Amino acid sequence: MLPEAVARQIIAEHGGRPRGVGQIAGAPHAARDNPGCGDHVTVWARVENGRLAEVRFTGKGCAVSRASASLMTQRLGGLALGEVHALSASYRAMVMGEALPDPALGDLVALAGVSRLHARRKCALLAWQALETALSEVEKA
After folding, report:
1. Which pLDDT does position 51 carry in this prediction?
2. What percent of the chain has pLDDT over 70?
3. What pLDDT does 24 receive?
4. CATH code, domain with 63
5. Which among 69, 54, 63 is positioned nearest to 129, based on CA atoms?
6. Which DSSP letter does residue 29 get?
7. How many whole angstroms separate alpha carbon 81 and alpha carbon 75?
8. How many domains, in total, are found in the chain?
9. CA of 135: how far to CAs of 22, 24, 66, 74, 108, in Å?
10. What angle do CA 9, 10, 12 make, to 5 degrees?
11. Angle at 11 (CA atoms; ends 7, 12), nearest 5 degrees
12. What pLDDT score does 65 carry?
């Protein structure tokens, strides 16, 4: 678990200057909204040879949703789809307070404290839900 000050710094950095922003032409994508707070995100996923070759997002939202999406693009790009699904499940369990932070999540563990903030859980999971939807389209094809 990261010290709280470090976690806040990571969230502020990625929330204020998110990475992985933009569209991927021709890639499957999915949009998700959080009606409770007005957050909106669209995630694009380019898959090649069973790997998440690139993942990007656009949208608007709070620092938690932007940081989560930014960190997701940084951590998951290049991984095999099985690894992506495993890390997604681990991240979701951490955010929901069902599991301790998995070191394999890297800087995403900065969002572990969200598990104590019920209203922010949806913010932290928004981009991940959109990614899973986009990947399900790829896997159906």
Report:
1. 96
2. 99
3. 95
4. 3.90.1010.10
5. 69
6. E
7. 13
8. 1
9. 17, 14, 20, 17, 20
10. 65
11. 115
12. 96
Name the average pLDDT for the chain. 94
- Residue 129's Cβ-count burial label (10 Å; 0-12, 13-18, 19+) is middle
Taking the C-alpha atoms of residue 60 and residue 106, their distance in angstroms, rounded to an integer, is: 24
Burial class of residue 38 in the structure, from the number of CB atoms within 10 Å of its CB (0-12 exposed, 13-18 middle, 19+ buried): exposed
Q: At what angle do helices 81-95 and 118-140 cross, to 10 degrees?
A: 160
Give the separation between CA 60 and CA 40, rounded to whole angstroms.
5
DSSP letter for 17, please.
Answer: S
pLDDT digits (tens, 9 = 90+) for 28-77: 899 999 888 889 999 999 999 999 999 999 999 999 999 999 999 999 99
pLDDT attached to residue 141: 66
Domain that holds residue 58: 4-140
Task: Kindly tell me if the per-residue pLDDT of 137 is higher than 90.
Answer: no
pLDDT of 35 reads 82
Radius of gyration for the chain, computed over Cα atoms and rounded to the nearest angstrom: 14
Q: According to the 3-state scheme, what is the secondary structure of 48-116?
A: ECCEEEEEEEEEECCHHHHHHHHHHHHHHCCCEHHHHHHHHHHHHHHHCCCCCCCHHHHHHHHHHHHHH
